[in-house]
Queue: 2 jobs
Job 1
Amino acid sequence: MRALVIDDGKLRVEERPTPTPEADQVLVDVASAGLNRADTMQARGLYPAPPGWPPDVPGLEFAGTVAATGRGVKALNEGDRVLGIVGGGAHATHLITKEDLCSRLSDELDMVAAGGIPEAFITAHDALVTQGDLRPGQRVLIHGVGSGVGTAAVQVARLLGATTVGTSRTEAKLLKAEELGLDQGVLASESMADEIGEVDVVIDLIGGDYLATDVEVCRVRGRIVIVGLLAGARTTLNLAAVLSKRLTIRGTTLRARPDYEKALAARAFEREVLPSLQHGDTQVVVDNVFMLDDAAAAYEYMLSNEGYGKTIIDCRGGLGRTAE
Amino acid sequence: MRALVIDDGKLRVEERPTPTPEADQVLVDVASAGLNRADTMQARGLYPAPPGWPPDVPGLEFAGTVAATGRGVKALNEGDRVLGIVGGGAHATHLITKEDLCSRLSDELDMVAAGGIPEAFITAHDALVTQGDLRPGQRVLIHGVGSGVGTAAVQVARLLGATTVGTSRTEAKLLKAEELGLDQGVLASESMADEIGEVDVVIDLIGGDYLATDVEVCRVRGRIVIVGLLAGARTTLNLAAVLSKRLTIRGTTLRARPDYEKALAARAFEREVLPSLQHGDTQVVVDNVFMLDDAAAAYEYMLSNEGYGKTIIDCRGGLGRTAE
């Protein structure tokens, strides 16, 4: 197999022996794997892999085909098309994961795009529903609406019968998000609270001083789910508003969760989101596809913050193939 | 009836016509009523009464006897002993409230002490269980452990099978709280986090910079419930820790809740806490009892922060009676 390896802050593709699945594990022939900010932090040595996952091969999500199954694997067979989140190792031609972390796919899905589904859609569904308790008819604010998670959250919220307002620093991303079903786009600024109006739930991929806006726009019993910290980790908090409006502020991340919690999030996603992806009502927004051999360029590109939707690594075998 | 009236920042006891209960309401002959910080803020003009409650008579909790019932009242009869939380009006000899906000009492409870039960114990139970999801075997930190809510929270947490660590700025309050069952007392200081160790839930009656300690001591998936803001409303927050530990920070207050939510909290308290109060396994800690005519002195006393447990107003009729 071939894997993208982090070596002292540098990325290179390396030949490694293809592993054999142990009990409850499957070997996946990876078709594609989304790129996430956590990967770029891991590559820079700022975010060690969670325990039990490859320490030097990044990649937190995948789509591919089951190539071999370990003892005790019941629901999956060789040749099954699957996708899922993992704690690392997906930026490679082959990946060992657990059966419980895989969701089976129908044949309709494009397998290159599918590698960008798991992190964005499982995170969005988990943040909106499991963490944010979003209900039909409620209004949700999505900061960073042009990101992978943001474009997924717009669609999942609509699927749930909620209304969406999204922010971005780029007008063009707002216009594209409106094509996806975003009800109201707001250009990010210090005074954006007035334009946003009142909301029940906030999905905040930006953090930092955006939290002050979140607290301001939340209705009584509002829920603020912090998913990312692009604008920084330290901020001030108005506890009087948190108390009088009885707000909930919750931090969330999939990567650090133990596997049984990742599996729980995957089951909820399978039940409530995957059918709509398979029917095509909901779609992963693909920004850019890089070949595994060009993965280092994908990591550079993500840091430019210019992407809209998911950056995906095409991991299908051969050297020198070009992206579709 | 006689009522404590707020008049331009001053408190005085005034004769008023005794009201008649309307549909679903009861008239209560008030035996006693706890004093809360929200009352002292209301008296200073800083915290208007919630809608639907007397604007100028404070008092958020009571114990007493049903004196009359309105149309549609089903479970209560004249002469029943009751206690409950209200949105105001309890610092008076008589009070109109709703049947749903009353909990019936057995004959064993001392009716002067009982007026200090509802806010402290309903708040503590709601914060620990409903907001904080405290489970048996978990460890809970209680800041301001010598307060009415603090002394109730120590006992309710023990009742639930949890372990308690409490902070106070006064060594003597910690020693008294240990007599109540507090497992570990910690003198409040800037470096208290080390001494506290790890906890699953925080009940924070202090706010301000205590939040930094709360975030530091919480385990993964910890819950921080902000109940009071004695140390101030503005603070800084380490969002990176909130995200990586997947913490929940939640503000709570009973006073601002609509009546149906107050009634829900009262039902949970009746089921899980009241039996233990009636058996005497759990007790309200009475710091001081003031007669209704001396209520202004009680308000002064509370601001000294020297109390341990509840300050209670004895509202039983006659002028010139002395406290028991």
Job 2
Amino acid sequence: MPGGSVPGLSMSSALIAIDWGTTTARAYRLDAGGRIAHMVSAPLGVQKVAAGGFPAALAMLLDDLQSDAAPMIACGMIGSRQGWIEVPYLQCPADAASIASALVPVPQTRLLIVPGLLCRDATGSPDVMRGEETQILGAFADAETRGRFRVVILPGTHSKWTVVGDSGIETFATFLTGELYAVLREHSILGRLAEPGEDRAALERGVRRSLASEASLSHDLFSARTLALTDELAPGAVGDYLSGLLLGAELAAGRRWLERQRVPGERVHLIGDPALCERYARAFAVAGIDATPGPPEAAARGLWRIARHAGLVGVVP
Amino acid sequence: MPGGSVPGLSMSSALIAIDWGTTTARAYRLDAGGRIAHMVSAPLGVQKVAAGGFPAALAMLLDDLQSDAAPMIACGMIGSRQGWIEVPYLQCPADAASIASALVPVPQTRLLIVPGLLCRDATGSPDVMRGEETQILGAFADAETRGRFRVVILPGTHSKWTVVGDSGIETFATFLTGELYAVLREHSILGRLAEPGEDRAALERGVRRSLASEASLSHDLFSARTLALTDELAPGAVGDYLSGLLLGAELAAGRRWLERQRVPGERVHLIGDPALCERYARAFAVAGIDATPGPPEAAARGLWRIARHAGLVGVVP
């Protein structure tokens, strides 16, 4: 594990681990103990690389990483239809072992790609993730999820609520919170009323409104406009109020989702960008939910864990 | 009333009635019987006219209308902060008489502007409309809303659910449905997956999903992506499915809102663009709600009714 020592691990093994997303590729050189020896980040995400450009993008990353002949593993959108090769989704529940046995090699390279996960809700409707499964595996050792459920939330453009238990990642649900915020802020009448500013009280006011509202998001959103029109919300507070409305709606809906899974939701873990996790933690506090930040560099940890299960490095514990 | 005869009305009266919105200005010359003698429509909406440009815009409309010295009345965004002059909102409940007594003249013109309405929900949070109040008044004569409640829905960028009763427009709630559809379709990952096409079954599928989902809109929206990814939704059906999700969410939330007002919601009236009303009626049919289309040219009818109450034309009935 990064930052920790792994007894019994062969000291000759090492790994190139790549968290290859939509906008950014982040590559890590991990030493034989799974510690991060070096990291590079480049704007070489899947959306930024033209078709056929992935071999050159990888070469650029590896050169910056001063890599040797170590095995290579990548997670994220690099395995999507818009990525290098399309790696089929693995069905939930899935754990480090089942994910490790479903790695897909990229032809003519020594790169293996981690599959994304697919689950279906009670109505049979699918939900998907790519990359988050690796971060979740990096957040907890097997022993930490044995005999109990943990709720792990990964805030972002498409926020993921996941239940982790004995079978690994048991199920999950996606909320479009970040994308809704971006399109409303940039392209809607609500965004046109907003002026730059931060307002913690407005964020919490938005959260409370959504928690109290019987989940009428498309109605509640309009209050960002009317409160500004009637001078009950300052222009510099509109952005954080809007953010609070969307976070509150996600929180209320996520809590109902957990109830349907019969999983207690008083305590959750957050993985992701620290500033965004801090924002989520504030929203959860309004609802009386205890949100614990997960470890940093969860993707690198998760890739190391999967690589160990795949026998690419060291020994399987 | 347009299209009907009004006994006792002075035949010398006539009115210029303008429905002056965000993108379009629609001006009507009404004869002494309240019938539409002539109509012009121009892209001279509030957003299209520069500050100080309203006198010229009005002159252009009047010229096209071949108007005489008749009184003039306008409703809509022309009375907003971005319009010609800002007309304060009138508090709900409001009827034709109270609205008529709150008309605001534009200095140096013979134009009177109809105030928009403001209501507050149980938590004190405000909601607003400008223009819709006039369309609602145009849809029903006093006798039609006496001793009973009518639910009137005006689909659009900002869809309005209104309760009309003995006191006129009793209360209302806005849903951002049209704007959410536009920003998601044009600027989100959901829109990027959509291809042109119409699919009535997909619309109804989206409505059903939202009705069944415990109102988790930001989660349900993501299903437009996952169903497309797993080939369970054709690219040409994504747009109508997304529309159905948003309509279903509005319908479910609107129904809960009516329950809180203790107003029965099995039957509603729709006012607005015929194609959009037809789409709403299909969504309502999925929920077993009977949706009746309102009269055409409701704004002209409403302006006539307000003008009569204000003594601008004919006699107050």
